[in-house]
DNA sequence: ACTTATCGTAAGCGAATACTTACATTATGA
DNA sequence: TCATAATGTAAGTATTCGCTTACGATAAGT
């Protein structure tokens, strides 16, 4: 009878644009008017796709993780070097970390944790990032054998922190590209391997 | 003749209150009306002390570093254990990191770097934090002797990152207090000492 | 062809917010 | 005591922003 519902597809098309806008402008500066303009639609139709601005932002946060996860899957699939998966991921991030330009969304999210829905989305995102990294560390260490310290979970948090400062120093121009690369490569592998007992 | 100018003193009195407000509410939610109310004055007089809201925020950012620096000076002065200065600072932060409640200001600042003045203030703040930590690492390693890797500057960034995730995980409830403590103690000392060649 | 729900356009509305203006009051030093 | 500038009070304003409403256009299945 009527036209078929393309809502889902439309959402998928627009999220990358919206995420980019939130990344570049932050949560408040990314007004619904600007979001609509970038999407080349009227505000109205954004509100048909998401309940409110908050929901658009939550979708953007999810998109940040999804984007990274997809990239990592690709790297892991490409495989067969002499380097292990964790080392390959680390090397990749050393080169390309932050290239998507999406990470500032995280900064924006951190100052909007008053909103329960945003807080929840941030919580989920960080948990996923941490869980993934932790898993990689564990597998890497298992391969190598021998007891290692500190705990993989702690090292995973430290690596997440590494990503964070990398973003910050990029944003503020405190580290050059090669500096960030060395940061990932040297400190990253220290955390990955830990200290053999 | 007229009344003496107490502007400077007034600023010093109000900054802690304003900083706390920015920390709790973020930059945008901390409206000038709310700031004034917390300070128990009218908006008007805030505008006599600072050019605009941006200037209030910049002052709050400076206050964050100042607060930490003062605390650290105290710790360093208290001294004479068997533990070195760097180790004492690390142990202190492991216990008390984030207690001031001021750190969320940093999150707020990170999504306001579009404003050149705020960006500059954030840049200065991070440089100072990093410089201080780097110095501590260097002195610690000199005491111990022997060549160490990775570079102190890189490890300093990693420790700054550690502080960051500590804040984030506190904010989002992703790590318990004891988890944060172990994070500082274990990963912190790994980064402090580095890997002896 | 005709019904029906999706898609697009345009305008507007109430609330909030950064900042201002005008004016009354106070306390100081000569 | 008196001029002077600091301190406080109150109200207002222009703008912005999130969100809504009303309506016309489009495209599908029967």
Task: Describe the structure concisely for a colleague.
The structure is a homodimer of 197-residue chains. Chain A is mainly α.
Gap between N and C termini of chain A, in Å? 70 Å
Query: What kind of sheet is the major sheet of chain A?
Result: 2 strands, antiparallel
Which spans of chain A have pLDDT < 50 for at least 5 consecutive residues?
none
For the largest sheet of chain A, list the strands in their spatial order.
Answer: 1-2
Shape, principal axes of CA atoms of chain A? elongated
Q: Helix/strand/pairing class of chain A, anyone? A: mainly alpha
CATH topology of the domain at 61-196 in chain A: Tetracycline Repressor, domain 2
**Order of secondary-structure elements of chain A:** HHHHHHHEHHE
The level of helicity of chain A is over 70%
Radius of gyration of chain A: 19 Å
From the coordinates shown, what is the CATH architecture of the domain at 61-196 in chain A? Orthogonal Bundle
Q: How many individual helices of chain A?
A: 9
Strand residue percentage of chain A? under 5%
Most residues in contact, chain pair and counts: A-B, 48 and 48 residues
Count of DSSP strands of chain A: 2
**Multimeric state:** homodimer
CATH class category label of the domain at 61-196 in chain A: Mainly Alpha
Task: Look at the structure and give the mean pLDDT of chain A.
Answer: 93
